[in-house]
Amino acid sequence: MDYGTLRVATPDGQIREYPITAPTVLIGRADANQVVIDHVSVSRRHAQLVIESGKVTIEDLGSGTGTFVGSQRLPANTPSLVESGQSIRFGDTEARFTFSESLAPSDPNAPPSDREAEQTIGVALTSPSQPVAAGSPTTATVNIQNRGTVVDELSIAIVDLPEGWAKVSRPTLSLVPGARDEITVVIQPPKDSTAAAGEYPFFVAVTSKVNGREVRSLGKLTVRAFEGFRIALEPQRAKRDFKVAATNSGNVTIQVALSATDEAREFGYAFDHDQVELAPGEQKLIGLAVKPKSSKLFGPASSRPFRVEARQGASGTPVTADGQLLIKPPLQPYKWPVIALLALLVLGGIAFAIMHLAGGGDDKAAPEVTPTTAPTASVAAVQPTATPTGLYAGGKGIIQNSDANPPTNDNCLAVRSAASRDGTQILGRLCTGEKVSIKAGPTNEGGFVWWQIEGPNALTGWAAEKDASGATPFIVPAP
């Protein structure tokens, strides 16, 4: 049964109307009450409203902030009479009760208050009863009444929720005098970091076309928390310095711990920060230096894998990113012929100096020193430096018979982590026309002749010189 409406205004100026459909109504902040006023000044079980024989009584139930009729505070647990439209206060919130037309007092000369005379629209909003998961829909209901004396066309809008979150089932509504109707509001926050976890107060605003007045009712939406984050290495392959890009794709702030490891445990790792706090949607770049624990003077260049892990909490599932460390010993095999030549030149120079000093005391014998074998030995040491033919360590090569096959280029020559096709990792591919440096080799394995090469972008690994038949060359000497 429709007994009337309790209109409540909070200190921030928001107004909400509660249809009274029972003769006895509990009022307070707790959800179990028939009228729930969510304000800090209202007790959980604040007051009781009773309608009997056309009269309204209000009883304070021992609230901390008191119940007032007009300016008079009511004694606890004592019902007091309230006139229709008279001011009532629950703590810091102000309320007025208005009878429905069927139960209104029969005195036609009883003047309504100024606020009642102006108010021709009744609005009551029922918010979603449970928190909603981001990405999932929930609903709120709006009960609207035309209290005016003419047919009114009403427009309904949702205010203070992010754009795109809410959709009103009927944005416009036409009501005859005294009629009520109910509309549904579907609310769906997106499942991304823009829908931060927490409470979102919002309003339903109903505007009259007849007099242009707007009535608002306050509601709230609670979005549940969800977590998610990812990491990536920039670049994926380098000689020492990397950046870890950590991104929070959830809707709550998280703490992430970073660590790194490699299978052989041969590297040391130094992060700028190994603990990172990320707000929803935030990305941070953390510096990472990777170094071998022991350095090698001799050996070929190579790429060694390692892995970075990011973990939220001690028991969280780790998120990983893989990288490669480029290792280039100072004395690589392709440099050895040059080093040997320099050593011979130095030895030859020392020998020449010794021979010259040995004959320097006899001026007459000086002319005879010049044709000695020391210069001859020095010249002879230089003569074997003629350029080798074919492919050789320290030389250059060009890729042939490896045409590109976009977008994967899987027809190009494979560069592998070791001189074998079995169980080795393909580090990259080189196509026809690309130039390479020969680092080491040759090595025979699996019916192929293998060379260690370095191509564009420091791609270093082992590649086959020819196909299995030996008829089609893949690497030829550079002119």
Distance between the termini: 101 Å
Total strands: the figure is: 35
Helical stretch count? 4
Structural category is mainly beta
Query: Largest beta sheet: what is the strand line-up?
Result: 2-1-11-10-7-8
Radius of gyration using CA atoms only:
44 Å
Please describe the biggest sheet, giving its number of strands, its sense, and whether it closes into a barrel. Answer: 6 strands, antiparallel
Q: What coarse outline follows from CA principal-axis ratios?
A: elongated
Q: Give the overall average pLDDT.
A: 84
Spans where pLDDT lies below 50 across 5 or more residues: 106-118, 361-382
Q: Portion of residues in helices? A: under 10%
Determine the strand fraction and express it as a percent band. Answer: 35-45%
Tell me what the structure shows:
With 479 residues, the protein is mainly β. It contains four helices and 35 strands. The protein has helices at residues 114-118, 336-358, 366-369, 373-382, and strands spanning 4-9, 15-20, 24-28, 35-36, 47-52, 55-60, 67-69, 72-73, 80-82, 87-90, 93-99, 121-126, 138-146, 152-159, 166-168, 172-175, 180-187, 198-208, 214-223, 229-234, 237-238, 241-248, 254-261, 267-271, 275-278, 283-292, 302-311, 319-327, 396-399, 413-416, 426-430, 435-445, 448-454, 460-464, 475-477. The strands form eight sheets. It has a six-stranded antiparallel sheet with strand order 2-1-11-10-7-8, with no helix packed on it. A five-stranded mixed sheet has the order 4-3-5-6-9, with no helix packed on it. Strands 21-28-27-23-25 form a five-stranded mixed sheet, with no helix packed on it. Helix 2 packs antiparallel against helix 4 (373-382). It is elongated, with a radius of gyration of 44 Å.
